[in-house]
Amino acid sequence: xxxxxxxxxxxxxxxxxxxxxxxxxxxxxxxxxxxxxxxxxxxxxxxxxxxxxxxxxxxxxxxxxxxxxxxxxxxxxxxxxxxxxxxxxxxxxxxxxxxxxxxxxxxxxxxxxxxxxxxxxxxxxxxxxxxxxxxxxxxxxxxxxxxxxxxxxxxxxxxxxxxxxxxxxxxxxxxxxxxxxxxxxxxxxxxxxxxxxxxxxxxxxxxxxxxxxxxxxxxxxxxxxxxxxxxxxxxxxxxxxxxxxxxxxxxxxxxxxxxxxxxxxxxxxxxxxxxxxxxxxxxxxxxxxxxxxxxxxxxxxxxxxxxxxxxxxxxxxxxxxxxxxxxxxxxxxxxxxxxxxxxxxxxxxxxxxxxxxxxxxxxxxxxxxxxxxxxxxxxxxxxxxxxxxxxxxxxxxxxxxxxxxxxxxxxxxxxxxxxxxxxxxxxxxxxxxxxx
Length: 436
Fold this sequence. Notes:
The chain is built from 19 helices and 18 strands. By secondary structure, it is α/β, with parallel strands linked by helices. The protein folds into two domains: 4-257, LarA, N-terminal domain (Rossmann fold, 3-Layer(aba) Sandwich), CATH 3.40.50; 259-417, LarA, C-terminal domain (2-enoyl-CoA Hydratase, Chain A, domain 1), CATH 3.90.226. The chain has a six-stranded mixed sheet with strand order 1-10-9-6-2-3, sandwiched between helices. The radius of gyration is 21 Å and the shape is globular. The two termini are 14 Å apart.
């Protein structure tokens, strides 16, 4: 069960500071009173809106006077932070204490989940082994404490983000990232979103039991929701070292971060913040989190002032430009024939996740990509200035809005912080809804 579990309509920053002090006190009591080497594992800058970078800074400040404290942002295959982004995300933590995860050259294999186990857990959707390849610094250096810090919110691969996702995606090597993402896509993104234990989460839970049981670790899980002033605020903090800690946070997120519609929505307009989302790899969370709400023939408009590329890595960017978001049947057809798709299987999965399957249109209003580039990957293009003038994101509140000429649309200022779905799509799907 969780060591600390607190819920409120809004948890202030002063209270969050106290909770981080309580976290350190509990770790002293349960793991070791005098840690000499501490590893902090927060998310990267694409989760900056959650405030977990500031929580990481609080933990660092409490421990740096007595311990050798290091930070590894759980990048997965995202682009490493610049020193400026580290300051933006983590405040006063010295840049030399923050280490970039290298998903290609900085990992070691510690075991595997067998093809038989993966096939059974995914109910036949995937039938390949998952090599458990993890960050070398995490696995090979001695640590007295390891503190995972993260935001629990609906997620396209694991049902809900964070917990051991920090390890098995955030600090994973290429082989594990590729095999797990393709397995999740094979299970179906709309079967994963908003479920507490998805097949891939179940795989990660088994891997944690088998290969990470000796790590002196704990999880700091936060939940956020919008208050009456339409601000994103902290509403939950759950701290502990077990699966129940994740489940407590995920159940709260399920209650607070899923918006249900009785009828499909014809038009959704959303914003992917310019200081967090620079590629469609991460900005497509707008697609993932709204797709179950959109009507057949509807439109999703994504205002993305920071958008300047498609992939997080140059080879993935080139890959997305080459193949585009063309729907599952076409992607799978090409995957069977093309070695680069098999080599970058996580990118293949991303093409599946990011396609509307022809059911609705996806229109991007990007800050730095051209009309030809956007249309080249099978999205529609809109001029960002014209789109901002029409939909007024700075003055629109989350919910239903109307343009000056009477067009009705549903506005989402931070789609990465929730999930939007019709009641029918959420509850009447093969994977069901809920559980655990």
